[in-house]
Specification:
There is one protein chain. This protein has 11 helices and 8 strands. Strand 7, helix 9 and strand 8 form a beta-alpha-beta unit. By secondary structure, it is α/β, with parallel strands linked by helices. Helix content is 38%, strand content 18%.
Length: 260
């Protein structure tokens, strides 16, 4: 894997493959670059893909102290390493990182955000006792149970989608990085300021699952109101993980947008 150094000195790894215009992929909570394995061959036929490992997992390094802002800088560093006219796709927590990174780079060509997660309308994102409960499960050593609890309670993921994720190549990496889920509850403290995004002129596709809970779709609606060149596309019959549950639908939608 290739490596780029982020602003705080942390080494961020990414896997480069394929050929064509550059495309950076940013995975969500608990995953690593293998999250994209099921759709990577199709993307590689059209793009030079840079699938990053977010800090604290896979081939990437980490810092002693965690701050959400460092994740934005990590994504921006990989985008700069990709070259010019880069397209950027972020999923879930990774979509939050991608939308903030978009404010920190130049020459971004296209932006795809699949259900970024942050509080909307003053409503708390998570139950106040969730961090303590997840930590207690993690301390038993049962990382699989901790991940299941995280997906159910933090993301509202139905059982069928969790079972699909268990069969995905990324599950091994998720088990290894399960401890990072606790710090990623920091997205519950994120404050969305629409005015910061009104000058972001990048063409942006906002993906939402038809059956995703309101907590996961409301941020995209807030973004559509703030971003000058954005539109929402609803993935019919899908929730938060269409890359796994409906890869063809996800690919057709994204490739159509990136090729437009």
């Amino acid at each position: 894997m290739d490596v780029v150094t982020s602003l705080d000195g942390t080494r961020i790894a990414y896997r480069r493959s394929g050929s064509g215009p550059p495309l950076v992929l940013v995975h969500g909570s608990t995953a690593d670059h293998t999250r994209w394995a099921g759709i990577l061959p199709d993307l590689e036929r059209n793009f030079t893909v840079l699938a990053m490992d977010r800090r604290g997992r896979g081939g990437s390094g980490d810092a002693v102290a965690y701050a959400l802002e460092r994740e934005y800088e990590d994504v921006a560093a990989v985008v700069r390493a990709a070259g010019r006219d880069v397209s950027l796709i972020g999923h879930s927590f990774g979509a939050l990182c991608a939308m903030e990174a978009a404010l920190r780079v130049d020459d971004l060509k296209r932006l795809v955000l699949y259900e970024p997660v942050f509080p909307v309308g003053g409503r708390p994102l998570y139950p106040p006792d969730l961090p303590a409960r997840l930590k207690a499960i993690l301390e038993t050593g049962d990382r699989d149970a901790m991940l299941v609890a995280f997906f159910k309670e933090a993301a509202g993921t139905p059982d069928a989608q969790i079972e699909a994720l268990r069969k995905d190549p990324s599950w091994t990496g998720r088990i290894a990085a399960a401890h990072t889920a606790l710090r990623e509850l920091a997205d519950g403290d994120y404050v969305f300021i629409p005015e910061r995004f009104r000058g972001l002129l990048v063409e942006t596709l906002l993906l939402v699952g038809e059956i995703s809970p309101a907590e996961l779709t409301a941020p995209s609606q807030a973004l559509e109101n703030a971003l000058p060149h954005s539109r929402i596309v609803i993935l019919e019959g899908q929730g938060h993980v269409a890359m796994t549950t409906a890869p063809k639908l996800f690919l057709d939608t994204v490739l159509d947008f990136l090729g437009s």
